[in-house]
Amino acid sequence: MLSCDTYLSPGSLDDALAAVAASDGRFRFVAGATDLLPWAREGRAGDVHVPLLVDISGIPDLRTIEPRDGRIWIGAATPFQRFLDHPELIRLMPGMPDCAVWFADNQIRESATIGGNLVNASPSGDGIPPLLTANATIELAALRDGAIRRRRVSLVDFIKGPGQTEAEHDEILLGVECDTLEGYGGAFEKVGHRRSLVIAVVCLSAVVRLDPSGTRFEDVRVAIGGVGPVARRMTDVEQRLIGQPITAELLRACLVGCEQFVMSRTRQEYRKLVAPGFVARGLANAIERAGGSPDACGIAKEIANG
Amino acid sequence: MAELKIETTVNGRRIARRVDPSQRVLDFLRDDLHLTGTKEGCGAGECGTCSVFVDGVLVKSCLLPVAKVAGKTIDTIEGLAVSGEMSAVQKAFHKAGASQCGYCIPGMVMAATAALRLNPDADREEIKERLGGNICRCTGYQKIFDAVEMARDFLNGKLSATAFDELDAEDGKYIGVNVRRIDAPSKVTGALRYAGDMVLPNMLHVQVLRSPHPHARIVSIDVTDAEGLPGVEGIVTSVDVPGQDGFGVFVSDQPVMARDKVRYVGEPVVAIAAESLAQARRAIAKVRVEYEMLPAVFDPDEAMKEGAPIVHDYAPDNIVKHIPIRKGDIEAGFAQADLIVEQTYETQQVEHAYLETEAGLAYVDHDGVVTVHSPSQNITHHRHMLARILNLPINKVRMIMSPVGGGFGGKEDMIYQGMLALLTMKTRRPVRLVFTREESIATTAKRHPSRTSYKMGLTKDGRILASQVRIVYDGGAYGMSTEGVIRKGAILGGGPYNIPNIQIDTYGVYTNNTPSGAFRSFGSLQSQFATESHLDICAERLGIDPFELRLTNAMRKGDATHTKQPLKSSAMSDVLEAARTASRWEHGAPNIRGATRSDLAGEGTRPSCTLSPRAVAETPAPKLQHEKGAA
């Protein structure tokens, strides 16, 4: 059970930071709460008393979705469901809808936030691989010497290990800034024990841009999660493909060595089989959605089907 | 604690309350507003029994701090049936027979309502996905999906309202007629109160301290610090048992709370009743128990060996029961056999996973009758045991069966009702205990794990001449239903086959594992898994079609079972033939086919389990006003 003495829902960043500055340090930020409440149960943290809970999900800055400097800003309190129903996000973040539809379930997607998924820093966090492929940058804010200090960190540097991030205890994750990937095809592959409410054993995001004929890779970005302490971009795979025409030989060649990304402590053998399969399937789905030529789609599908 | 002032609209009614900021929306609805149609099944967002609409969007109320609904609109299951008339979804659930135990059903109805609001034309696959966050343990989901499709078609004008009506019994006969369940309206509307939904004035909340060790002597229990905490009204341990402390279905080997030693992780040691759940939990954390570790045994075959740690002094060989069956002469049978196949089979522990966790409410009435409400599957037996444990005449003990939110055998054993009786007798106040999901999984009885050694002798043409079957069942720390389970395992151990020579031995064995108890099929699943797997292996070795092998040996009318029960009828051959026809079975031994077998796919075959996500773009969830009589 999670208990608190005070639950605050500040309406501004200033108020939120002032509240924690006035506290004795025993506080936690709350956004969607979908990870926080299950954490304070038997078998995990057990009964936890946090004197002050500060709910930051109502702060307007954290709910903004807007273009910024040629990129797109997604407020940290954006629920996952928005990646399925917000027209701008769907247009500019083609790697996300497929991820969101696999995320938890219809109900939790309405509460769980993208920022929460990042600060939770689970090795299997579904939102992390697609944000890696979007070259996401994190923005953090904290009160330092009486003023708000904002700083930016790349997502790659932000997540340091399972449950460990660059954020300091009193820092608020404001949001993520991402590449706009309009015209890319995006795919998300995930495997677990059931359809809904499942922690990924392996998850993978692939986004692809093709030339106008739909036969050549102009850009390829692939990231894999669930197979090690942190999700990672598969740069070797990307480098082999960028600029190349889509052929069976090329696709087959890029799968070689994919299993090296598997560094989990458990189910290594299984994950090593899944990893190249997901790269192949992710690419095939992304090629199709990027407007691949019938030939290119056929080749990629055939490789994906083994 | 700073109270939080909340203004919200619940089922169309404006509500202003001061609430405990630690509450979840689930607690606010159930405890403060007494809207108990919203259930708690897991408390971790996994099961969906707590689904409610907040501003028209379906969410899990166990994952929602109460502060988040300030200024918002909540709709619960109670809000769907406006002025007593059920919604279309509720009527469809009633008509389709979609509710069984009913515990998941309010959440299912809410999820179905949400699915059809978001897409009034959702097909079955989309319905499945949109209900993916809600778990049902009884139905296998098919009737639930049927109901959602029925409601969809009604709302789209493709079905008339008469589709929800009950069909008339034909010539007064109800068998073969689709009769609506009498109890369904109470379940689809959330009106039915399970034990955890019941409250009484001045009721106390119970929590239990459980053993962290599999086998340890209890050196001392110190409750001094717990007693002094605010709100604590009563503490009981095994010393508070006035009568003969011991319960069990066949052997009364289990104390109400651990006596002298603990035998499994999760065994209750101390129970505390306090004014609030939080106070009871804080008090439990203050109890100090000193243990002296004992060697433990976790494998039943190890437990049967000489010198193994002894779990119960009365059974120095750790054997709960041994059931032997002997018929004919197996050695003679094996000697005549053309083929002898030997194999070992293992099955694992399984959790019942009913959506309603164990819960009970107890009080002493004005006549001094100790009364316990609980979802017990065996109240008369519990009553007799409890009278002996409490040293009360039988007319001073009353057991009332509350609605069972799923049992599957898991609620046959009296594992917590004794603690409630002791606490209500000690405090003279009503007491209630509701298990958490974690507590339910970690501490209650499971299906018996088993290890079966099978030896079968057959002729070349597939007649079974002799079977030797030895099944060791892990009974865990207490006897519970083990004796009955292994007896059933023995009686059915050879399978429904005519076998002239048979030797069966089943053993129920004590270990320091979580106790095993009753579970659907009661011991026969383990032996059937072994027998049928074994027959498939034999079919392969003999080059005989598996259906043929079974038909050759099937018990028929006039035969006798392995325990000499004459069979006045037998449907086995008919059932096998029907299955063979329905599956368009391709004749042949299991190992003659390659990738080319002809009986896969085709008409009537379900597609393989695909997990493709639905096409992704969606319209935003509509912001709904409180609807009157809508879906």
From TrEMBL, chain A:
Keyword Flavoprotein belongs to the record: yes
GO MF entry, a single one: FAD binding
Keyword terms, alphabetized: FAD, Flavoprotein, Oxidoreductase
E.C. code: 1.17.1.4, 1.2.7.4
SMART domains recorded: CO_deh_flav_C
InterPro entries assigned: CO_DH_flav_C, CO_DH_flav_C_dom_sf, Diverse_Substr_Oxidored, FAD-bd_PCMH, FAD-bd_PCMH-like_sf, FAD-bd_PCMH_sub1, FAD-bd_PCMH_sub2, Mopterin_DH_FAD-bd
Pfam families cross-referenced by the UniProt entry: CO_deh_flav_C (PF03450), FAD_binding_5 (PF00941)
Gene3D superfamilies: 3.30.465.10, CO dehydrogenase flavoprotein, C-terminal domain, Uridine Diphospho-n-acetylenolpyruvylglucosamine Reductase, domain 2
Protein name: Carbon-monoxide dehydrogenase medium subunit/xanthine dehydrogenase FAD-binding subunit
Organism (species): Rhodopseudomonas rhenobacensis
FAD-binding PCMH-type domain ranges (all copies): 1-183
Domain of life from the UniProt record: Bacteria
TrEMBL record, chain B:
PROSITE patterns registered for this protein in UniProt: 2FE2S_FER_1, 2FE2S_FER_2
Domain 2Fe-2S ferredoxin-type, chain residue ranges per copy: 4-80
Gene3D superfamilies: 3.10.20.30, [2Fe-2S]-binding domain (1.10.150.120), Aldehyde oxidase/xanthine dehydrogenase, a/b hammerhead (3.90.1170.50), Aldehyde oxidase/xanthine dehydrogenase, molybdopterin binding domain (3.30.365.10)
Signal peptide: none
Names of required cofactors: Mo-molybdopterin cytosine dinucleotide
Keywords of the record: Iron, Metal-binding, Oxidoreductase
GO function terms (MF aspect): 2 iron, 2 sulfur cluster binding; iron ion binding; oxidoreductase activity
Ranges where the record places region Disordered: 581-631
Similarity section: Belongs to the xanthine dehydrogenase family.
Protein name per the record: Xanthine dehydrogenase molybdopterin-binding subunit B/aerobic-type carbon monoxide dehydrogenase small subunit (CoxS/CutS family)
Species for this entry: Rhodopseudomonas rhenobacensis
Lineage start: Bacteria, Pseudomonadati, Pseudomonadota, Alphaproteobacteria, Hyphomicrobiales
